[in-house]
Amino acid sequence: MAEPLFHVRGLKVALPDMARKPLFGRAPLIEILKGLDFDLPARSITGIVGESGSGKSTLGRALVRLNEPSAGTVVFEGRDITHLPETQLKPLRRDLQMIFQDPMSSLNPRRTIGAVIAAPLKQNRITDDLAGRAAEALRRVGLPESFAGRYRHELSGGQRQRVGIARALALSPKFVLADEIVSGLDVSTQAQILSLLEKLAEEMGLTVVFISHDLSVIRRLCRQVIVMRQGEIVEAGPTDAVFAAPAHAYTRDLIAAIPLPEVDPHWLEAQPSA
Amino acid sequence: MTACLEIAGLSATLANGVRVLRDVSLTVQPGEVRALVGESGAGKSMIGKAVLGVLPPSVHVIEGHIRLEGADLLALPAKERRTLVGAKTALIPQDPLTALNPSRRIGPQMTDRLTKILGWSGEKAEARIRQLLDEVQIRDPARVVASYPHELSGGMRQRALIAAAFAAEPRLIVADEPTTALDVTVQKQTLKLIAAMQRERGTAILFVTHDLGVVAKISQKVTVLYAGEVVEEADTAALFADPRHAYTRALMRATPRYTDPQASLQPVDDAVLAELAAEIATADRQWRRPHG
Fold it and tell me: Core-most of A28, A56, B29, B36, by most CB within 10 Å?
């Protein structure tokens, strides 16, 4: 296997627990990630699956240093980025891009799509031929160049998610974090977005972390999978192997709970294995 | 046998004359679960709202019938209609957090329908709700009724709303994507619960969902919608064994299936959508002629 792009050991993240915040003073910290060890192979799509509250999004955000780990190390391309200050992170940011779940709320409503895509370029001091680069990014995700002049409300959900991908890829990053990017989409649109992401990852040699609550989608898209529960990794490995023989009871329950589009009168009667 | 719900030739338009429901017909027999499946904009929730009489003011029903146990709802005076619908139907909404008032405790919100619409005494309503909470396997009903919505997990909230929906023994429940916001393991428990309570009581359910997986597990009959038009209608087993319409087949190929990842999640072919658009345009032209 290729050299890992990320090398993560003993990763812990603690965040303020706002539910227990006193009226004055700081909220107590709550440990979200409880010491995770894993590597992310380069040029490959890794799925992270878990139910709500499992810490999958917190893990993704720690990788791109949107939050700072409280313990452990995150090594990106041989460099320890666990506690790098923002000034030193800045040059790395163009290699660490992300696509969010809801493109409606992550796209600026008052900017044209062209300006939205060009914004990260400008931040990285790329100023020549911004329009040309934006047009190229749109073409890459299968949207016509004319979309550069439109606003987000003029786009369908699938088109907005294409814009989200175009913006993330405009800087030709090495790593892309995709957090529940097809959750709000119809199945037909979902299929298109997944095919697009798969194609672009292959063409551009991207390393992708694909966070999803949906194991079926992960099965289709990801070479490796990490199964999380309550801030811990319960199982990790090649997707084929995990589906063929899930080692952990929780993984088996997750798989068994997926309603396959097949009639099965016993499905609603079966008891969970745990 | 009188159908529990019979919708016949239902058409609805927006103010600009665009049809959002196109000559929709379907029936739900007593004790039956009929799934309404389609992508966003298919009009599946709108049909549920039309039955309950809660369509947004921008949508106008312009023809057709909605018969609830034989009574033609659209022909009834508004007040009578509300009384009838309130007595015989209930809703399980998609997102219990949005459906519940955040500043009131769960208990009074659950008894409201029983006391205000059905005129039950407070004591009788509370006793019934306690009994139902027990039936939906809420272990600590006293704590749940005293909680505010945000103090419960999504699964617990949905259980409480299922209990509330079944409490007045409705003949028909409209379940509008009741498990879409839930985790997959909680979804399965919730579907099991709805199915068990429905079977025991013989309640008819109009089950709105976008997920063919859920359709396969919960329903006996299914109506596939696209752009407010019924594309296909069948017994659920027959639909999955032998989908007749090209769109139904495309929808099935687009649905994720972990047992066959390469053959699933296929984008819907543009040709299928073009054909559907042509079908709909023809239907609209024919419909417009007598309607000016």
Answer: B36
The whole-angstrom separation of Cα A57 and Cα B154 is 18
Q: With contact defined as beta carbons under 8 Å apart, do B256 and A220 qualify?
A: yes
C-alpha R_g of chain A: 20
Chain Cα centroid distance, residue B169 = 17
Shortest Cα–Cα distance, A69 to chain B (Å): 27
Q: Spell out the domain ranges in chain B.
A: 5-291
Q: Which CATH number fits domain B5-291: 3.90.180.10, 3.40.50.300, 1.10.10.60, 3.20.20.70?
A: 3.40.50.300
In angstroms, what separates the C-alpha of B192 from chain A's closest C-alpha?
Answer: 5
The pTM of this model reads 0.92
Model confidence at B123, pLDDT cuts 50, 70, 90, reads: very high
Task: Pick B240's closest partner by Cβ from A191, A263, A267.
Answer: A263
> What is the pLDDT at residue B95?
79
pLDDT single digits (tens) B131-167 = 999 999 898 899 999 999 999 988 899 999 999 999 9
Residues in chain B closer than 8 A to A269 (CB atoms): 192
Q: Which of B192, B237, B261 sits opposite A220 (nearest CB)?
A: B261
What is the predicted ipTM?
0.88
Contacts of A256 in chain B (CB under 8 A): 188
